[in-house]
């Protein structure tokens, strides 16, 4: 079953193209990730699929309803948690949930049960009477999720739900997402955190308004990063990257904090070749060890490749 099917979605704001012919399908009951840097077009795509923005071109169906003709039906069957915290700071946790239960027209006989379930799923029991303004960022995000699932939506859109919260709260939030999926919900989540993207069943990488890759996290790493990955320590990583530029056996070299990560065309045996090459170019202290490629490596490689294509074509007009 397909929860979302988008075909050639385009959104223009005057001369600026925010989303450029993006197509994909989201399987029902899955966690689907929209991965990309800020400004890539993730939020604009979600707002179109929620019926909040009309596409300039293209079409989509969401939970079986046509976006152009049945936007109101879509809104009844989805939950949406925006980037910006949108609940009321001067209400308590429970008052916010009661307000949204009314907005969603949940029957009075069911409201207490739905609010209690939202409190449990979001881990907010015991905080019902806390003023929302006094909550920490991670707890506010859990409250926003609780409000978004009050009406038992079939599909939940989460737009960078953990932006600005601490790592422990991010981990807790992803536990909540996994629980929602286990209950049969489909979760569509945008993020620019690589560790979060690893939790998704399927990913799309969107950049400069265009889809540039789609696969499972494992497939994305395996298919994009053909060759061997090495970590180089010792010299400043910027010097390592400069010394390897233009070398025919080096597919990619990037700075990762205090080290450099290098992708070569050859197998693990090319570690010695790398060390010799770096020594010959004035970096004899360089030490090379094989490492497993990561999703972040694939992400950077794809972005660099896309930037090169844009440059070769004389720049992309958006």
Largest sheet data: 6 strands, mixed
**How is the largest sheet built, in terms of strand order?**
6-7-8-3-9-10
- Characterize the overall form: elongated
- Number of helical segments? 11
Portion in strands: 25-35%
Mean pLDDT: 91
Which tags fit this structure?
318 residues, alpha/beta, six-stranded mixed beta sheet, four-stranded antiparallel beta sheet, 11 helices, 14 strands, elongated
Briefly say what this structure is.
The protein has 318 residues and is an alpha/beta fold. 37% of the residues lie in helices and 27% in strands.
Describe it:
With 318 residues, this protein is α/β, with parallel strands linked by helices. The protein contains eleven helices and 14 strands. It has helices at residues 42-49, 71-77, 93-103, 108-121, 137-148, 167-182, 194-197, 217-224, 237-244, 270-280, 295-312, and strands at residues 2-13, 16-27, 31-35, 57-62, 65-66, 78-81, 155-159, 186-191, 202-207, 210-215, 228-233, 250-256, 259-264, 287-290. It has a six-stranded mixed sheet with strand order 6-7-8-3-9-10, sandwiched between helices. Strands 2-1-4-5 form a four-stranded antiparallel sheet, covered by helices on one side. Strand 12 and strand 13 (259-264) form a beta hairpin. The longest helix is centred in the C-terminal third of the chain and has 18 residues, at 295-312. It starts with a strand and ends in a 6-residue tail after the last helix.
């Amino acid at each position: 079953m397909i929860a979302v099917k988008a075909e050639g979605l385009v959104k223009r704001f005057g001369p600026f193209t925010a989303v450029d012919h993006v197509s994909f399908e989201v399987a029902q009951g899955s966690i689907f990730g929209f991965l990309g840097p800020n400004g890539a077009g993730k939020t604009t795509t979600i707002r179109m699929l929620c019926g909040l923005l009309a596409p300039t071109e293209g079409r989509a169906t969401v939970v079986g309803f046509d976006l152009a003709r049945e936007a109101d039906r879509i809104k009844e069957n989805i939950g949406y948690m925006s980037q910006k915290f949108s609940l009321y700071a001067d209400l308590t946790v429970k008052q916010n949930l009661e307000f949204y239960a009314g907005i969603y027209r949940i029957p009075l006989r069911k409201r207490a049960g739905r609010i209690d379930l939202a409190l449990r799923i979001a881990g907010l029991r015991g905080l019902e009477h806390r003023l929302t303004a006094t909550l920490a960022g991670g707890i506010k995000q859990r409250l926003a999720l609780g409000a978004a699932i009050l009406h038992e939506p079939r599909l939940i859109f989460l737009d960078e739900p953990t932006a600005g919260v601490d790592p422990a709260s991010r981990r807790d939030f992803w536990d909540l997402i996994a629980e929602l999926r286990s209950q049969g919900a489909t979760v569509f989540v945008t993020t620019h955190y690589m560790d979060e993207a690893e939790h998704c069943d399927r990913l799309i990488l969107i950049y400069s308004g265009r889809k540039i890759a789609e696969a499972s996290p494992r497939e994305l790493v395996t298919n994009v990063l053909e060759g061997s990955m090495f970590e180089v320590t010792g010299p400043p990583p910027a010097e390592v990257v400069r010394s390897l530029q233009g070398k025919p056996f080096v597919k990619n070299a990037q700075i990762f904090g205090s080290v450099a990560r290098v992708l070569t065309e050859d197998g693990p045996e090319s570690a010695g070749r790398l060390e010799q090459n770096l020594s010959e170019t004035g970096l004899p202290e360089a030490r090379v060890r094989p490492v497993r490629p990561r999703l972040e490596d694939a992400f950077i490689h794809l972005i660099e490749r896309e930037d090169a294509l844009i440059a070769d074509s004389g720049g992309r007009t958006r």
